[in-house]
Amino acid sequence: MKNAFIALALALASTFSLYAQTDADEAPIAKPRKERQPLSEKLVLGGNFGLSLGNFTNVTLSPILGYKVTDDLVLGAGPTYIYNSINYGNIKYKYSVYGGRLYGRQRVFDNLYAQAEYEALNVQTYSANDPNARQWVSAPLVGASYVQPIGPRSAFIITALYNLNYKEGLTPYNSPLVLRVGFNL
User: Fold this and answer.
1) How far is residue 151 from each of residues 93, 148, 184, measured CA to CA in Å?
2) pLDDT tens by residue, 120-173
3) What is the pTM for the complete model shown?
4) Long-range contact list for 60-69, CB < 8 A, 24+ apart?
5) Of the four listed, 14, 70, 79, 97, which is most buried by Cβ atoms within 10 Å?
6) How far apart are CA 144 and CA 45, in angstroms?
7) Which CATH number fits domain 41-184: 2.40.160.20, 3.30.420.130, 3.40.190.10, 3.50.50.60?
8) What is the distance between the alpha carbons of residues 121 and 137, in angstroms, rounded to a whole number?
């Protein structure tokens, strides 16, 4: 019985000593927790504003609100309003375009981003039967943006997009290529 007791004591002692012995190199290393940014640091405000006066008057307002999913990816949305007035001698055409857009901007290299948007705009169609006829026009847009930081949280942005659904007369843009100059805060 005495031998059985000693064998049991040795077995228990060796088990405890096995658990107690760890090598510092083998111990799991806890990854440092990435500190969460406050929501205000992840939000991006900005957009486009355009103004042209004369025989052709154009006022464009297109603010955006984006969210930084990562440091390289921003997703967002915003409303769009465009007012146009065109003078042809004694004839004056006035119309408004309104709608909204969803966008995503992914950094591909330094200040260069790939950008995709989906824009839905309500445009006036000038039907002979109904001069006030309007129609929703969708525009998937793809292209690139150059983002030049001008402060810790602000940037100047130049964007070139191609309208994949361009139809002359059914869009407020003069060509399938859409150029925008804007800012982010």
Assistant:
1) 41, 9, 10
2) 999 887 766 787 788 899 999 999 999 999 988 888 999 999 999 887 766 777
3) 0.71
4) 62/101, 62/182, 64/101, 64/103, 64/182, 66/103, 66/105, 66/184, 67/42, 67/43, 68/41, 68/42, 68/43, 68/44
5) 97
6) 19
7) 2.40.160.20
8) 5
Owner of token pair 């942005």: 157
Look at the block and give the residue holding tokens 């002979």: 128
- Locus of tokens 């966008």: 103
